[in-house]
Amino acid sequence: MRGLGTGVVKNESIDYSLALNILALASKDEYLRNAILNFVVKEYKEELRKMLGISLSNVKMEWSGDFENFLSERKKRKKVKNIETLNYYKGLFDKHLKGKELSEELVEYVVNNKNKWLRNVFRHYIQYLYMKRKISPETFGWIMEAVPSRGYKLSVRPYQINIEDVKRTLDFLRENHEVYYMIYRIMLESGIRKEHAIMLIENWNPDEEVEIDEMVTKRLVKFSEFSRYYIGLREGNKPCDWVYFSNNTLKLIENISPRNINKDQVTRYAKRNNLILPKYMRKVSWRLLIEAMPREVARFIQSRFGELKISEARYEDLLSEADKYYTRYLELLKNKVEI
């Protein structure tokens, strides 16, 4: 390096011809190219950003109704429709971002913040700014590269669910808590989540007519051995379309619904009495569903549309298949769980 420097600089004057030849060599030598790029990024970051048209000035972070609409309606990929999630995002925004000017320092603050959800909120806002043409494509690209999304640690956490424990849980609830027993039966028979089972009970309206992909039907459709009830949540991270359950469970629902239920109390009750937690009933249901029917039909029954990639053309097809196979599932439950 000393010899190189001596060659480029002679008598305090720069040999520009030699310097330019060295830069030209970078197109053929990967090591030299990376060395030059790293030096430029490190020493001339601001000048480089200006050359690329990356400007962070005069952009102030402000939560608005328009941004909320972007999150719930216009955002690409998964939209944010859950009110609890929106409120959590707004709380993070107000605490860490509100009123601050978009800057390199703010980007660094977000990247290094302990709460990784802040990265998601910040990236959503950058997408919003880009859509509103308040930042350039270069600025958008740089920030989205500089601020990674929240990381997810994928680990295998085996949870062995014994069918005998399922029986014990249902027997205990049958004897001690009729409402929670009904919730657990709905979760087991349909594979839906606790919050959706509670939503069904609280908003029970079996005679209401709904239109589904040009098909008009009542929310409750009853067959000889089972029924299905239309909730119709298709957007967001946790969809829930049709809910399947036996006609014995239907009688429980009709006797109790509609009724308001505190979802947290259900879990606390299960912990207090050493029962299977509600969140595991969906897993139990899945394990048994795929014994009784093809996986594609089981995914449809559990509203796993992200895995199914369902199209409107196949909707009625899968609905009729689910109706056909569901009696097999009830028979399996009867033999294994004795409900």
Task: Tell me what you see in this structure.
- The chain has helices spanning 2-8, 16-25, 30-43, 45-51, 65-74, 83-96, 104-112, 117-131, 137-146, 163-176, 178-190, 194-202, 247-256, 263-272, 281-292, 295-301, 305-308, 312-336, and strands at 9-10, 13-14, 209-212, 215-218, 220-222, 226-233, 240-246.
- The chain is elongated, with a radius of gyration of 29 Å.
- The chain has a three-stranded antiparallel β-sheet. A two-stranded antiparallel sheet has the order 1-2.
- The chain is built from 18 helices and seven strands.
- The relative contact order is 0.08.
- Helix content is 59%, strand content 9%.
- The N and C termini lie far apart (81 Å).
- Strand 5 and strand 6 form a beta hairpin.
- The longest helix has 25 residues, at 312-336.
- With 339 residues, it is mainly alpha-helical.
Keywords:
mainly alpha, disordered N terminus, two-stranded antiparallel sheet, three-stranded antiparallel beta sheet, 339 residues
